[in-house]
Write a structure and sequence with these properties.
alpha/beta; Nucleotidyltransferase, domain 5; 6-stranded mixed sheet; 5-stranded mixed sheet; 8 helices; 28% helix; globular
Length: 323
């Protein structure tokens, strides 16, 4: 499960034992660092076998400075995945060009130039397949970001023994938290002070993604407010999303909803949403032993990129935490 915006300058492989996830969010820069592989002996390398969770409060203009602070405070090293927020990247759906794969990226810059606010000369992009409507043309989702802004983040991140290996979006980081499954699942996910994200994932592919506006402050709602207004509104958006998935994309009905909201009333939210839904609703469990760090879910998902899901708990069982 991955959308990887790969830039030639950042493909150098790093042999470090750590994987880093760095997410840029409304509240600042979030970091998670986890062991990449299990150490078998008490060598000098074992000093890096730890899990780090850190948050630097900042605004978009200070993201690079916040990364440097994290370097200083956490002595970072390893292979990093950057998680862009909605303001840093744009997603548009277009017909897939009838070109060789090697030529598609170059052609897409000009195909989407009037659909985004990034100029082709300053654009980094990649794409992933979009579900195709019955009898329709093959579609792709194009994700683009401004090169000059990415360079600032890369320069700040690639200090010392840190190398950026991938750049992704929050939606893919969330989807990467799911264990392998064949049937479609709808996710209701959020990070602190961010908008809620709806995802429908089936067989490792994102079939649907949408951000729900107006719910960034849901953590401040009372149980009564959740019950009488918020959850009804979210339930309506979920119904619209599942209708599109089932009727327009001709897919089998959603059989399960998973929730990841790092708020005190998450259980109340799940119970009330379950009352409004015709399918089971439960919390999306994070791999142990970092299952309690739900406010860092996006960077945890980034750290798990391309990692065997079932091995993570064993790898981290002996790790210690800095937070």
């Amino acid at each position: 499960m991955s959308f990887l915006t790969k830039i030639s300058q950042i493909l150098t492989k790093n042999k470090s034992s750590q994987r880093l996830g760095i997410a840029f969010q409304q509240q600042g820069v979030s970091l998670c660092s986890i062991p990449q592989q299990k150490q078998n002996s008490a060598t000098e390398e074992n000093k890096t076998e730890k899990v780090i969770f850190q948050q630097e409060v900042s605004n978009p203009a200070s993201f690079s400075k916040s990364i440097l602070v994290l370097h200083k405070n956490c002595d970072l090293e390893g292979s990093a995945c950057l998680v862009l927020n909605e303001a840093q990247s744009q997603v548009v759906q277009v017909d897939k060009p009838s070109l060789p794969e090697s030529e598609i990226n170059s052609a897409l810059k000009w195909q989407i130039k009037d659909l985004v606010n990034v100029s082709p000369d300053n654009m980094v992009l990649d794409y992933f397949d979009a579900p195709t409507l019955a009898g329709g043309k093959e579609k792709i989702n194009v994700v683009c970001a401004p090169l000059d802004e990415l360079k600032k983040l890369l320069n700040a991140t690639e200090q010392g023994d840190v190398k950026v290996s991938t750049i992704t979006t929050q939606e893919f980081a969330f989807a990467n938290l799911l264990p392998p499954q064949k049937s479609a699942m709808l996710l209701v996910c959020q990070q602190p002070k961010e908008e809620i994200v709806l995802l429908i994932v089936k067989q490792g592919q994102i079939f649907f993604q949408r951000r729900l506006r107006g719910f960034a402050q849901i953590s401040k709602k009372t149980a009564e407010e959740l019950s009488f207004s918020v959850i009804d509104n979210i339930s309506l958006e979920i119904q619209r999303s599942t209708d599109y998935f089932e009727r327009q994309l001709k897919q089998a009905p959603i059989k399960e909803i998973k929730v990841l909201l790092p708020i005190d009333l998450e259980t109340v939210f799940i119970d009330k949403l379950s009352e409004n839904s015709g399918v089971p609703v439960s919390a999306l469990e994070l791999p142990r032993p970092y299952h309690e760090h739900r406010e860092f879910a996006a960077v945890i998902g980034a750290c798990l990129e391309n990692a065997p899901y079932s091995e993570e708990a064993e790898v981290l069982a002996g790790a210690h935490y800095d937070s």
